Amino acid sequence: MEQALIWEKLEENKVKCNLCNFRCVIPEGKSGFCKVRINKGGVLYTLLDSYVSSYALDPVEKKPLNHFHPGSLVLSFGTWSCNFKCRGCQNWEISHFFSSEDEIRKRSEIITPNEAVKLTKNYGAQGIAWTYNEPTIWFEYTLEAAKLAKRESLYTIYVTNGSITTEALDLIGPYLDAFRVDIKGFSDEAYKKITPIFNWKKILETTIYAKRKWNMHIEVVTNIIPTINDNITELKSLAAWIRNELGKKTPWHVTRFFPYLDLSNLPPTSVETLEKVREIGLEQGLEFVYTGNIIGHPYEDTYCPHCKRRVIERHGFEIVENNTHNGKCNFCGEDLNIVE
Q1: Is 266 exposed, middle or buried (0-12, 13-18, 19+ CB in 10 A)?
Q2: CA–CA separation, 41 vs 30, rounded Å?
């Protein structure tokens, strides 16, 4: 086990983990909510070390990130467990997995941060992402890998539920380029139906902090789940929040839900619903709203908000045509908030 970062010692050999906004107070011999941070003798340790559950070479659009190095390849890494327990998680085999360090080791491929960066370069990827489960709980590993990646001129991405604390962001901020955040709903009721949660508004505060303090590239994803988070009033409020706090050029991905795990009784999101949510985003002043998980749909493409021309044509995660340069529209020069 590796000693954890970002925690404090309390009385009676308890510790307080300050890595995510659960801020678990952990008695000796117990773990936090994520199950992979353990109090041993009044010291907090992580069980995850260099244990990789899965990795894959992906187009960056799969994260999804549509305005961040479009068309590039990113090597994605995940580990075990999560600090959220989402009822419809499609990666539940790894994110809902809790066990001893010995069992985690048996099921893992051991890839050190240095080896991860070497693999990224060997695969010809332009960047590295931590995804599949929540990267915050793998903080020590991702921090070291991010530092090494930046030395090799690779970009870095967190695909996150937004639970990380500002203390943790201040450590990794200099080395993290993109913060692709899930905002799963915009009310206590919606979040309670999806996952046990601390005050969900902390996610909003953290996202604002990542942008304003560390100038990370932000893209927001909301998986639209029928009867759970598809309230039109709440989605209008979410779109307005993105516009006001992150900027009108911040991409908002509204993605199609498919029945899974404890939400298998629900139907897939209709295409009509996603198109309506997209219109809501545009009416609220957002300039880039994408429908996701509908291959071949015209609203997976990027349109210039000024001249209305299609500047990036996509089919699934593949770019068919790109008419941008230095983040601007080739036709009229409009700033598209694209990092290249």
Answers
A1: middle
A2: 10
CB 134 within 8 A of CB 82: yes
Query: What local confidence, expressed as pLDDT, does residue 97 receive?
Result: 87
Q: What is the pTM of this model?
A: 0.96
Give the domains, in start order, of the chain with CATH numbers: 2-46 (no CATH), 51-329 (3.20.20.70)
Tens-place pLDDT, residues 182-206: 999 999 999 999 998 889 999 999 9
Residue spans of alpha helices (H) in 41-112: 92-95, 101-107
* Ordered alpha helix ranges (H), 173-200: 188-194
CA distance 322 to 96: 39
Q: Is 56 left (phi over 0), alpha (psi -120 to 50) or beta?
A: beta
Segment 88-92 shows an average pLDDT of 93
